[in-house]
């Protein structure tokens, strides 16, 4: 029987007065908050040898011991013959151009037609992931967002990629079409965001502790007839980050009913155009680019050179 993986974590001064689950999820980015909460409830998390609760406040210097259960084989998802546009594949990982409208993994109301269903049919081995219904899934894109998503084939690669995302070593470039034209041709949006207190499916600007830091660099590419093609380079990876940040500028993404208007569009026009990261095994730089989807042509914009990126 596989032994659990043990993590020992010492809380920093910055962690003081934060909830246990909120602190631990930052130190263990490969685990979701719900997974952390389950470990706490099952008695696999101790503080100085004593059991803790998820809502307890953390103090600077607190020493946690977490026993992470060994991964279980993926269950609940069946292989489906769904075409995949693979941008890169090797023995450790693959990068897929996810189409708009595809959910990344199975869940309530989404038992089929997901990226995981398609990956299982593809035949490649997949990492166990942090949850059994998410084999291979290192990060996620919204259902309506198209573009690059990286998938791990083994647990070692999964852990390394998760850490790279957590350490902000993965460069992500998104393209979006927005209403109007921001005042500045390029800039940085530094605005913490958190869950909306009433509309729980929505995120909103919020101060700490309920809000988490979120930073997005942007660059305007072209403008025509009241629409702008914009490149967004998020430094952090918060839920709905780009959508919230562009709305905060007064220029929501075209077709976004949650933060703007749907209008004539079938989805919000946001595309994960490019992923750049260091291959976790070879150390070589890897850059994957997803072609612009056809529905971006619904807003006729002049072509522009790709954005610069340091």
What features would you describe in this structure?
- By secondary structure, the chain is of the alpha+beta class.
- It folds into three domains: 5-68, RNA-binding S4 domain (Structural Genomics Hypothetical 15.5 Kd Protein In mrcA-pckA Intergenic Region, Chain A, Roll); 86-166, Pseudouridine synthase (2-Layer Sandwich), CATH 3.30.2350; 171-298, Pseudouridine synthase.
- The chain is 15% helix and 28% strand.
- The protein has five helices and 15 strands.
- Strands 5, 6, 7, 8, 9, 12, 13, 14 and 15 form a nine-stranded mixed beta sheet that branches. Strands 1-4-2-3 form a four-stranded antiparallel beta sheet. Strands 10-11 form a two-stranded antiparallel ribbon.
- The radius of gyration is 20 Å and the shape is globular.
- The model has no long low-confidence stretch (mean pLDDT 88).
Notable characteristics:
alpha+beta, Structural Genomics Hypothetical 15.5 Kd Protein In mrcA-pckA Intergenic Region, Chain A, Pseudouridine synthase, 3 domains, four-stranded antiparallel beta sheet, 15% helix
Summarize the structure.
With 310 residues, this protein is α+β, with helices and mostly antiparallel strands.
Q: What is the element layout, followed by pairings?
A:
Layout: E1 5-10, H1 20-27, H2 33-41, E2 45-47, E3 50-51, E4 63-68, E5 86-89, E6 93-98, H3 115-122, E7 146-152, H4 155-166, E8 171-179, E9 186-190, E10 193-195, E11 203-205, E12 215-224, E13 227-234, H5 241-248, E14 270-278, E15 285-289
Parallel strand pairs: 7-14
Antiparallel strand pairs: 1-4, 2-3, 2-4, 5-6, 6-7, 8-13, 8-14, 9-12, 10-11, 12-13, 14-15
Helix pairs in contact: 1-2
């Amino acid at each position: 029987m596989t032994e659990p993986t043990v993590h020992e974590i010492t809380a920093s001064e910055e962690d003081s007065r934060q909830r246990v689950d909120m602190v631990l999820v930052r130190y263990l980015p490969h685990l979701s908050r719900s997974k952390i909460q389950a470990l706490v409830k099952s008695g696999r998390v101790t503080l100085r040898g004593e059991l803790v609760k998820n809502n307890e406040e953390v103090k600077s210097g607190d020493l946690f011991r977490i026993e992470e259960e060994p991964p279980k084989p993926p269950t609940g998802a069946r292989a489906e013959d769904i075409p995949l546009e693979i941008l890169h594949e090797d023995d450790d990982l693959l990068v897929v151009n996810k189409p708009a409208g595809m959910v990344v993994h199975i869940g309530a109301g989404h038992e089929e037609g997901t990226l995981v269903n398609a990956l299982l049919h593809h035949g490649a081995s997949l990492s166990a992931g942090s949850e059994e219904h998410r084999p291979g899934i290192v990060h996620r894109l919204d259902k309506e967002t198209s573009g690059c998503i990286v998938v791990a084939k083994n647990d070692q690669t999964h852990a390394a990629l998760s850490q790279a995302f957590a350490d902000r070593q993965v460069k992500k470039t998104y393209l979006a079409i927005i209403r109007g034209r921001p005042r500045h041709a390029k800039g940085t949006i530094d605005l913490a965001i958190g869950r909306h207190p009433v509309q729980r499916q929505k995120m909103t600007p919020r101060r700490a502790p309920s809000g988490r830091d979120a930073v997005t660099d942007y660059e305007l590419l072209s403008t025509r007839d009241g629409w702008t093609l914009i490149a967004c380079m998020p430094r952090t990876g918060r839920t709905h980050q780009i959508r919230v940040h562009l709305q905060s500028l007064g220029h929501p993404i075209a077709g976004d009913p949650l933060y703007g208007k749907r209008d004539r569009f079938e989805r919000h026009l946001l595309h994960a155009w490019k992923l750049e990261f260091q291959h976790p095994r070879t150390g070589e730089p890897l850059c994957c680019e997803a072609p612009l989807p056809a529905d971006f042509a619904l807003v006729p914009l002049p072509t522009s050179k790709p954005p610069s990126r340091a």
